[in-house]
Input
Amino acid sequence: MQLVIASGKGGVGKSTVTASLLYLLKDEYRFVAVDADADAPNLDLLLGVERWEEERELIGAKVARINTESCIRCGICQERCPYDCIKVIDGDYVVSELTCEGCNVCGLVCPVPGTISLDEVRSGVVRKTTTRYGFPLISAQLDVGRPNSGKLVTEEKEWAKKLMGELGIEHMVVDSAAGIGCQVIASIGGADLTILVAEPTPASLSDVRRAYKVVQHFRQPAYLIINKADFNPGFTALREWAEAEGIPILGEIPYDRAIPRSMSMLKPFVEAFPDSKAADAMREIAGRVREEILK
Amino acid sequence: MQIAVSGGKGGTGKSTVAINLAIALREHYDLVLADLDVEAPNDHLLLGVELANEEPVELFMPRFDYGKCTRCRKCAEVCEEHAIITMRDGTPFLMPNLCSGCAACEIVCPVPGAILPGKKLMGHTYLTETPYGFPLVTGRLLEGEERAMPIVSRAKKRAQGLEKELLMVDTAAGTSNTVSKALEDSRLIIAVIEPTPLGIHDGELILRLAKLMEVPAMVVVNRSDLGEVAKVREIAEKYGAEVIAEIPYSENIIRSYVEGKPIVLTDYPEAGLFREIASRVVEFLGGGE
Output
């Protein structure tokens, strides 16, 4: 089974919840964990990973380059670039490598053959390790300023599937990126179900509703975990939304200083502070994941 | 001129800093705030306003006139996103989800009228008046669409079109090219960083991007009592960025955040921190009205 943890809004505790859930389920189930936030991967930090066993560079991003020698400075490339990535610097037309999407429109409209080339560049790395908890983790890191991190996520999931086949592992747990864009679509696409994490604030509600629409787009069931549940008493709209949409609530985790403290210790909070009230709540949630999802 | 608030990691408090700083800066500049976190835009919620003046962001999407198409496959060959597939006889089909709307297919098509300009809705931009004397421009990607870049690009243009003295940009998390697009043309980046190992890891990436883009950066440490500020100072120094403020974890800020009442307008002591950040920014940019 492939399950995804998503949230829409960043910083609501997706990776924190994922790390603790993996910790609580590791003795009963075999899974590969995938950190699909290639822009800002953090699951490895929360699981205390110190080294990667294997790292693969992903070449695949493309950026346009203009040869200033043969360029006749007609400006057509700049005019036609759909994303305004071409600037004039000291009289030369230059493609901004940090914003280019690699569509090659500039190269197609350029009247001087060979002046604009589309070069392949590194988009980032995909890497694998075995965590100290025994299960493998696949992670990735997009290079700064590179486009389409969704491809990196697809690459990660393919590696994870291969590993599952080799090692006879049954489950894949994907910690998705924030937002609803290409990385999130690559995470949710092809999965069996999504667990949404949200906190009781208007911003988190707004963003989780958007993430849920992506889940619906893929016709998957969704579940909800409410994090920092007591952080905003009186805000009932999150729970009401879940009830109205028929999204089962797996549980509520109270705001607990044990969580940021465990982050500094680079450990899942259920391991670092097993007696905390957040850990109690998390164990209850893991119990429901066992009974209702993994069965 | 333009400045940007960014932070690498999600949920570090970028939007909180952006809206409070905008309110504090309105006394110095005629400004517009642009929320370019198009996958999860929240500045309007924090400012307590409803998005208004919606404009669609539509992209070119090829429509094939199969009566004219010669099945030459050039459109499929040129498509960098592999959004056009061809049947054995060369008949092209579009997979709309993969199409980036760049129109390369139309450019190479040798038969006039065989590729028609269809349109695909990608999201919207908004221009909302706020009760604080400055407008908010918001970009919002449609759920199910993958490409944030066109929305970021269009929302930024809409904000630039207002020709205010100061454009303040609030970016998405991460350091991908959509964040670079938002940061582009900034005279200053304010990086909001949490002093946790995760926050520092991601914060370093945004400082690296700022350096690559040759934009000076200043660091605001948020929830400064939840970790080791010294480590943030270390990475800030490595990238030549100055730490200009430390904001402790605060119930008052959370309350103001959930109520949509900006803290900078209250009498809480935290308000002073944001005014201090604003005065550092004014000092750096040099004046205003």
Chain B touches chain A through 62 residues (CB under 8 Å). The first strand of chain B starts at residue 2 and ends at 6.
